# Entry
Amino acid sequence: MIRFVAVLSRPLGLAVWFLTAWGAAAGQSFVGQAAKRQDVRVLDSLVLSGMGGANHSLEGLASRDALIELMMSGDSTPHVAWGLALHRWIRSAGDAHLRVRFDLAAAERLECALPPAMELLDPNGPWAGFGPGLDVAASARHAWLTRTWPWVGELGGCSEAALSAPLEPIAEGAKQAPAVDKAGKAGMAVVEQEQYVHWTVGSFGAGSDRAFRRAFRKSRRQVRQSGLPILLDLRGNLGGYRTRRHAVLHALVAPSRWPQEWDRKWGDKDAKMEEVPPMPAVKTSRRMEAPLAVVVDGLSFSASLLLVDALNFADRAKVFGCAPLGQPGGCSGSPTPHTLPGSMWRVDVPQRASFIGLNISPVSHYGLSGAVVSDVPGVMVEEAVWWLCTQVPAP
# Structure
């Protein structure tokens, strides 16, 4: 089993010496200077034009300098250390679709105890380098590192003490990834409560189109027949297809009230912006007009946040939860994997960029707190339910 400690945040000379010694002891593979040069040349061709202002931010400049210095070093670099250096630079763009695929490099998936949040997010610790950039809200970074812990713990050097410790129990009421049945249908569930109906949309990307349409029609019927205020739960929804996002929006808001949506090639700011027409996978003839609260968490991202943007634009819902993985106003999409020729690290690079309501000034993190709180799942739902119960019912 690999045991590795990431110390790229320390002075580079000490870091290179330590990583080289540790990698040799762990039997880890190394990346030579020629291979590192190949990687940087190819990576630049893929992402440099799309990095935008990140190239001129303090973190963007610092991470780029560290990457180039490590590339120029005559010494070979441990494989994971090189992956961390690549990731540190591209994550400075603040786009979770742009990342190094560490999940494909871990030799095995660990089941050791998850460290406390403060330790997991420590910028000088062994694990923070595998997550989103430090400018992303702590709630989102913690959620991402928790989700990816089975391989982050392996690559980051989960301690022997942690290996022998029992797994942390999941907090009561915590939101889990939606269940997936044998047919591959993403979890879309409706639970009728006394004062509201809880509609969970766990993904816009999992399962076939046919499975989504069937699950959506069933859920829509249950929500409408309840006649209750709606709690739309987008926690853990990392995004997916535009047509499915539009189906949910179409059921809640008439297309005449939708904001303008634009699309262009990612990384080409001079590319023509093309307006995106409504394209719901399932059309709804009669809107659901009951009061609507939307709950997001640190793993809400991409298409799920574009849905939140549209609902906000139409003044159709109030948003609760904690700061998500993305920002208001748009996001990248269609990430495509590329293999760097020198180290063979896989890197995901977006292909498209979408924008919602260009004439609206976005509110950072949707006005939600980015703090990490242990009982956030329960608090998020309680606040949303309280708000729903104070609203005037729809006619």
